[in-house]
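RECORD TYPE: protein structure
NAME: Cyclin N-terminal domain-containing protein
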Amino acid sequence: MMQGRMADENRRPVAAVGKAPLAGVREMGNRRALRDINNLVGAHPYPCAIAKKPMLQKIGGDEQKPAVASRRPRTRMYAASLASKGEPEHQAIGTDAAFEVGHQKEPMEDGTDDMDVELCESTDDTDMHEEHKDSVNDATIMDIDKADSGNPLAATEYVEELYNFYRETEENSCVKPDYMSSQEDINSKMRAILIDWLIEVHYKFELMDETLFLTINIIDRFLEKKVVPRKKLQLVGVTAMLLACKYEEVSVPVVEDLVLISDRAYTRGEILEMEKLILNTLHFNMSVPTPYVFMRRFLKAADSDKQLELVSFFMLELCLVEYQMLKFRPSLLAAAAVYTAQCAISRCQNWTKICESHSRYTIDQLLECSRMMVDFHQKAGTGKLTGVHRKYSTFKFGCAAKVQPALFLLQSEGTT
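PREDICTED:
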């Protein structure tokens, strides 16, 4: 019964029920898409359903203006200074002391009040300023989800646990880097040609990024377990894309579209039969962490803008075509793509502590993969397989392919 449901191109697979919330589900009806929340990069804040009014403080029985929030963070040194002045400690929580005490402070002769003097004194204190700066850095370096704490769709309560699970299970999405040696009629060059063509099909159908990465993952996992003749390789490719669409997309291309895009090389029945074979071979497991899920998290840690995002994905998609990149884990590929893109844009090595903390990779661990990406970037516009370069040379993708390669990373290879 499960196979019958999966074989129908108009149904979505039951396996999608177990999918993690951040993998890119599109909106259904009035429900907002989880891919568009701030837990992922580039989304707008989730609007509050109720317009909350600020609390009013009462002074002498009359309502006054809302309490002014102090921009000064509360530190131990600041609290100690308040205690030494004999002022209530709760003033440092974030409300102006004039409203908390219940009367306005008398201005001093020079036009300033006590709070102004206190702020000026603390500003002149270099040691206190440095301690305050360090405390803010220590408090925020690990928390990139603080801005989304009030957004119920951002899953900030368990987003770290979610990515810990991704790391524990990413091994299941990997294949042996030499699996092609077990194939009798196909090789890595044929795989590269197929993937380059699928990237163009993916672009033509305007599918989501998640769909492309899952498509390639399905192909590799299937080819690792089944020997496929050369004439069936394209059939495996289009069927893998159909399955990925059923898992990721809301509007799924019909089988007839895939028949036409493959120049009628296969019939509708052959595609449905291959669909059942792939699903049974992979035990209906479509829930695997691809480089895409890690890329979104690492881009957020890097506080990326649109340019960095597009250049990072350009680097990552260049790796999809290359069979030799299968030796790297999905998380390492994503981290190296962000690092290489940062180097290409800023023209210097740029990998912050927060990027290292969330990716769990140091620059030394990324260099091998990053240098290979620079080499692919340098050669992307030449040769026969230029699908990724043409895609990212368009204005839709910010002409990301035209960014100059970070060649200094290759030059540093001889000195390390």
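COMMENT: Confidence is low (pLDDT under 50) at residues 1-74, 89-140.
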